[in-house]
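User: Quick sanity check before I run a bigger batch. Here is a single chain. Can you write out its predicted 3D structure?
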Amino acid sequence: MNPMNAMEKIEGVFVKGFPLDVLANPLTALIHDEGFDTNKIFNVIAAGAKAAGLRLGGVIEKPVAPTAPGRRCDMVLTDLASGETVKISEDRGALARGCRLDLDALSRTCALVLSGLRHCDLVLLNKFGKTEAEGGGFRCIISDALGLATPVIIGVPRRNLEAWRAFAGDFAVDVEASAFAVLHAA
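Assistant: Done. Predicted structure follows.
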C-alpha cells in the first residue's frame, strides 16, 4: 500500500466532520488551546485506522489518575505498534515544581517507535511539546516518517505553533482540533 494514500481506506469510517482531505498531506497538525483534551481525537482516529486495516506507529497519551490529592498525573504514553506503555514523567516529590519530563524515557520511547516505523501506514503523535519546540523529542520520528512517505498526525499546542511551523514548513497542514465533532461512525 502506498502510505500517503492510506487515509483513503478510512474515509467515512472513523470521524464525522474531520476534514479527511488534509490527512493526505505528509503532516497534519491538530492545533489546540491549553487544556484541550486531544486524547479522544487520537483514540478515535487510532480505532478507525485499525478497523480499516492500517498499521499504526507512534504514541498517544494514556490517561492516568493522580496518585495523591493535589499532585499532577503521571505522563504515560502507549506505543501504537506494540501496545507497550512507557512512563515519561519523573516522580520528583510532592513539592517539586517545573518540568517533570524524563528525557531518558522519552528517548527510549522514540527509539521504540523508530524501530517499527518502516512497517507503519500512519503515525500518530500526541504532542509537539516543549522538547520538540527546542529541537528534540519526536522530531526524529517525524523526519524519518517523512523520509518513508508515511503520513503523521500530531497534536500541537497553540503555544508551540510558531516552532512547529518553523520545523514543518510547507509539509504540514494545520487543523483546529476544536473545529469539528469527533464521533465514532455507527
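Residues 85 and 99 are 20 Å apart (CA to CA).

User: Great, the batch can go ahead then.
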